[in-house]
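Section 5: illustrative case.
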């Protein structure tokens, strides 16, 4: 009975913390459609987000710039994560670029998982696609979302090791602190509100 009470309390704390995080950090919801002006403002904010994430990465790992520039394409996400005892949740937004066309695809991400941990963290995730097929697969599922979370394991110095040889992943902390060992799947999908 005590164990169940602790689990319910931890879930309540996680839910309260999740709800209290900044609304701007979360992925799309069921709110009313955006106006044309709102869409353009959000697109510009995403482009700025991507530039900020890349600049932070290049400062941390200068050699990453050549990797990004020579790649088929890349994606930059800003992600908020919460780790509350056994509950793990993430939501984020970002933009993907095909280096051949320079056209942006605006995207969102969400993750639910489990594992011991505590804390809150905001990070930039940068995906570098070394093959056209890897980039196309990332966005081909459209609204359904692509799950690449199961293919990565945590690394050090801002680098996350991918089991997919055609994708390199970098993670750059922006703020917060978390101690965690978690598992779960992350879904990346096209942001239908910005089409």
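Designed sequence:
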């Amino acid at each position: 009975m005590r164990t169940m009470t602790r689990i319910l309390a931890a879930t309540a704390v996680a839910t309260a913390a999740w709800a209290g995080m900044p609304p701007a950090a979360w992925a799309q919801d069921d709110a009313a459609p955006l106006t044309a002006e709102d869409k353009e403002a959000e697109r510009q904010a995403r482009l700025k987000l991507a530039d900020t994430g890349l600049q932070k990465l290049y400062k941390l790992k200068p050699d990453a710039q050549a990797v990004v520039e020579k790649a088929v394409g890349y994606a930059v996400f800003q992600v908020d994560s919460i780790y509350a005892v056994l509950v793990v949740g993430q939501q984020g937004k970002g933009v993907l670029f095909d280096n051949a066309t320079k056209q942006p695809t605006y995207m969102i991400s969400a993750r639910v998982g489990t594992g011991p941990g505590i804390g809150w963290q905001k990070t930039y995730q940068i995906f570098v696609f070394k093959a056209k097929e890897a980039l196309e697969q990332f966005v081909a599922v459209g609204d359904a979302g692509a799950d690449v979370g199961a293919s990565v394991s945590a690394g050090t110095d801002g680098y996350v090791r991918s089991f997919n040889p055609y994708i390199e992943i970098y993670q750059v902390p922006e703020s917060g602190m978390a101690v965690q060992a978690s598992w779960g799947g992350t879904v990346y999908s096209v942001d239908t509100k910005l089409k």
